[in-house]
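TEACHING EXERCISE
Course module: macromolecular assemblies
Task: Read the component lines below, then compare them to the predicted structure of the full complex.
Student: A.B.
Group: 4
Components provided:
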Amino acid sequence: MPQLHRSERALKLVGDAARQQYICRTCRAHQVRAFHASYPFYAVKSERPLLQRLRESVFGASETPEERKREEARQERTKELATKFDASRPLERRKPSDRNEYYDVAAVIEPPVKGYRQALSWAGLKRVGSEEWVKAREDKGEAYTGFTPQKQLQLLNENWYSLLHNIVTEVSVLQKADRDVNQVWYPRDSAAQTFSHSSKMEVQPMEGGVELVIPQDSEEVQKILQAIPEQPDQPTEQTGARIRNLSRLLSDHPAPEDAWLQIPVDAKTKLAIAKRITQLTGRRISDPVISNATTVQDLFDAIKIKEKPKKLARTEELQTLRIELPNVEVHPKRRSVIDKEKRVGRWKVIEAELEARDLPVKGNRYPQSKTIIEPQLSRLQRKQRRMQKA
Amino acid sequence: MTRDEIHDGICRRGVITLNISGEGKEDASRVEEKRRDDSYQPFTGNLNAPSHREALRSAKLSALHARLQLPIKLPLQTLARCLVDPSVDPRPGYNNEPLSILGQELLGYYTAEWLMTKYPRLPMPILFAAQYAYVGSSALSAMRAEWGVEAVAAPGPEVDPGLLQLKRQIPGNAMAEGEQMRIKHMPQARRVGSGRRNEEHNYRRGMSSRIVYDDQFGDLQTTLPVSTSDDTSPYPSAPISRPDETTPFFSQDTSSEHRPPPSDWYLPAQPTYEDPTATTLEAASATFVRALAGALYLHAGTPAAKHFHTEHVLSRHLPLHTLFNFAHPTRDLSRLCAREGFEPPVARLISETGRLSRTPVFVVGVFSGNDKLGEGAGASLNEGRVRAAAAALRAWYLYSPPAEEIMRPSEVEGKAGEGKKWKSQIVDIGEVIT
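Instructor-supplied answer key:
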């Protein structure tokens, strides 16, 4: 686009003056939008698009009946609105400029708010970047509380397990009660916890997996349903209190055996579960994991802490092998030529001889490896060196 | 107590102390204890060999232990010590020198008794040569190479303990730095002696002097310093008796019992650890194998040491008949027949072919009366006769008694009560000297 190129040229000039070599893509796009300027040529020519001009040149400049009808309707509507709003103002369809060019005059629109008067000039209007605007937006120390906790909660695997069980139970209870599963992440009172109730839920086998046993008339289910709000307009609980309580509650209410992990999840359910996990702990589950998850087990595998893979040499098997077969050596790193030379004691000799001859010991990663020969330095670099020496 | 701590104790015990008399036993233990308590000085110089603690972690060492089928009684730490040459670690408590002295004597003893009982009529020069061929330094060096024991390029604490640790000597043929001479021709080249008296006169070395003065192979003991007096020690830093000094063993004064024993009297004099002498790979290899034999003897006893000797030394095939070199075989044979009371040897033509051709062959036998002593083939009648006489002499000298009659002294050593009875062995009067 020629507009973009011209703006970029302008920006480059600005950037050179400020000694700023690099402008990020976002800033560049922002500047392009701010400094957008189109050629007058295109502004004029946009009256008659290329296709129309071609058609006119070939078939003559006659309007089609549909176009004429549409134009007439538009003019009628504009006239009607103008009469309604300000009848004293004469209506101008097109205004000839100095260069004999025509511009559209904006249609006067009926204001949606009562008492609103459309401005016809920008004097007295609020402006982005004005003093009032800056004052309105200035930081007054308001605390921002987002949906997710600011600090990601670090839990043990058993706590993750209990938390997931609690959320899955809530979601299942909501499903059984024909309520929206998304209600599980509606902000709720911090006192309304369901851990003590959910930990008592059991599982039963069913076709294609397992299911939580949820008797509708039980006390636990009713308490869970009461704790989950039906509207999202309740105030958000305090983040700090929520985190502090959560770790303790999860430890106090361990989840039952892992048969419930095989409960199948559909798209809506797993999104609700993932959102609730993010809301409580700040832990996000990646989209591919959510889209590929078919059971709760898949979600648990995604959130649980994975054991760091051990180096082969440090594995238990090889440690026992070392005792059973002392003639076998396993090294955590690949043996280099230097290691082999060190093994027979030759490396120190090689190193000493290389140093004695002022030769590099290991490839080019030695302190003076990047030394530039004097004639190759630029004039400025030579000057800098002289100043350093002085 | 861990394995390392136990081995620490073994290492600190130092050289194998030899008790000169029974009286010294108590004193020796007292001094040993004292030395362990307060006077033990740790080595403060630069450690040039890997720590013995590394021995357990070395795969090479474990592999060598398994490859040689060494008994479990021989720990890896001792095997690692056997690989440390004195040129790398001069401390006798940590290098293989004390073990190698013991091992050298053991290997020499077992080889000599085997040769003497199996071939009782071997002449002395052949006995020396065979001894060297079995347990000489070049044979032991070849043995080290066959075992797959590699040597370090340069000694240091970072090297694998499973390698032979030695400081290599600069070859004598190498040019001296900044000079136009070879190392061996430099004036400061170390002069070696043989430990003989009047060495400077270059007296002729006869067989008797080889037996008396030289080492077990009849060779000059080139590692010894040049002797200047009669007090030459049999090996470096060996204890030398000085009767004129007041010592607990030789003093007539009874009050000397209360004096503290001089610790350096039966412990070898502490050598300066500054500059250990460099050595050759062959010498270091031989020291290693001998030290291993000595260590086996100490840890696993005589049967293990003898088994080691049988498996690794006697299993080597030595064609003894090629060692003979007769100057006058016919004369020797007639002397031998005269000495043994046989009829004088007579050479007779057994068969011949192509007498008038370019390549005649005469098969000649040497007979004593009706007994054929030997047979030889030659291109002339005389050559056939000489070859036949040499064959007869070889047959005489290489006589071996029946296998069930052979018994080595070490077989009944310390087994008097176990039912094994010593059988007397043939002792020959010696070779024919003409």
